[in-house]
Amino acid sequence: MKDFMLIFKGGSDAMNMSPEEMQNHMGKWFSWIDKLKAANKYVAGEALTPGGKTVKGKKAVVTDGPFAEAKEVVGGFFIVRANSIEEASEIAKDCPDLPLDGAVEIREVMKF
Q1: Distance between CA atoms of 29 and 99, rounded to whole angstroms?
Q2: DSSP 96
Q3: What is the pLDDT of residue 43?
Q4: What's the mean per-residue pLDDT of the chain?
Q5: Among residues 49, 48, 51, which one has the least CA distance to residue 65?
Q6: Cα 86 to the center of its chain, rounded Å
Q7: What per-residue confidence (pLDDT) applies to 21?
Q8: 3-state class of 38 per DSSP?
């Protein structure tokens, strides 16, 4: 088994949800996590706050940001176990934010 990072982007339609809709949506996330844990596929994951800082260049200049279009904002990540990137892609198809115009970037975690 290999580790893959699922990077969750967009899903900005969730910002327009009522508190009840948001609670229901979060229930979908927790159910998905439970399903992955039961299959021994879930390693870790966290949501990220929208703001932050960027450190860039040879002089390590710190700026506010990242500032990106809502569809490009990284909202969180999971680390999952899968046999291949194709299997990790199948896992990502259950992401609750996909119907909300979200996207999932899948990257294999490199082992040194």
Answers
A1: 13
A2: T
A3: 98
A4: 91
A5: 51
A6: 17
A7: 93
A8: helix
Tell me what the mean pLDDT of segment 27-50 comes to: 96
Nearest to 47, CA basis, from 22, 29, 71: 29
| Percent composition of the chain: helix, strand, coil (DSSP 3-state, to 5) | 35, 35, 30
**pLDDT over 90 at 91, yes or no:** yes
- Parent domain of 102: 2-108
Tokens of 36: 């992955």
Average pLDDT estimate for 48-54? 84
Give me the helices (H) in the chain, please.
19-38, 85-92
The pLDDT of 69-86, averaged and rounded, is: 88
DSSP annotation of 11 reads -
The encoded tokens of residue 49 equal 């706050």
Number of structural domains in the chain: 1
Measure the CA–CA gap between 37 and 31, rounded to whole angstroms: 10
CATH number, position 32: 3.30.70.1060
